[in-house]
Amino acid sequence: xxSIEKKLPKVRGLNVVKKSPYKENSLIIGISxxxxxxxxxxxxxxxxxxxxxxxxGKVTDCKFHLADTLQRYNYMIDGKTSERDAFLMSQKAGxxxxxxxxxxxxxxxxxxxxxxxxxxxxSGEQFIEAFSRVSSLADNLAFEAAILNSIAEFxxxxxxxxxxxxxxxxxxxxxxxxxxxxxxxxECAIIMKLWPIYKKNVCQYLLYxxxxxxxxxxxxxxxxxxKKIFKWVxxxxxxxxxxxxxxxxxxxxxxxxxxxDTAFVSGRFRxxxxxxxxTFFPYKPSIQKHLDDFQALLTTKECHF
Length: 305
Fold this sequence. Notes:
Rossmann fold, two-stranded antiparallel sheet, about 300 residues, five-stranded parallel sheet, alpha/beta
């Protein structure tokens, strides 16, 4: 049993919510499966802060958007793991996250929902329209530059972590580039097109322990229709206790042995574990190709929505 009264790290950056001028405020918590910031004591501290906002009369409800199957692209960076297998592994990681945190969530004092990434992937025309809209921005030089800058940023972080862990499985650079671009486009489409709910006098605050990537920021400027009532809020923890978190998703092993290295995302490693090498490959898939591949994935019986 968790005690929310115990001494916890302080959560900073939520003053914008406390000072909201709107009559009704709703929270969205973007959950990166595999990040230590959504585990154990740190996650409990966030729950406590949400309760405090509710008790102050500043928020009415909370939605936890679980970006679990978005992480399937992380498993595909070896160029050998199929999207189907990657989907099932990331889906299982989401199942396990919910199991680990269901007791912590009972500490919440306000109405809440857990919404998984599959809901948006399986939204039919809504997803197709959102993905097509964001993908079309790639023809804009500023947006394409934002995508490439985000890929480059992820690449340097991933390679450093990969070297520190002395991983044996080789990364396929072309698969890395392809996976990263697909991840970014899908993330931008779903967060900026499908998450906003525009209601008069209702403001949605998307809480996340980090700033928007360049790709997300550019999409926000180009796609979000009413920025005054859909806002990204970066929060952070004043103290960071050491947390021994079990890995959530490993790097795929060689397909011949199917063994997984579970050390992959412990420590500070976050969701954006894939990216491109400094020399970019000219990979730019067609919108229809991406959607066709996804529709084929939906026919997999093990992929529950």
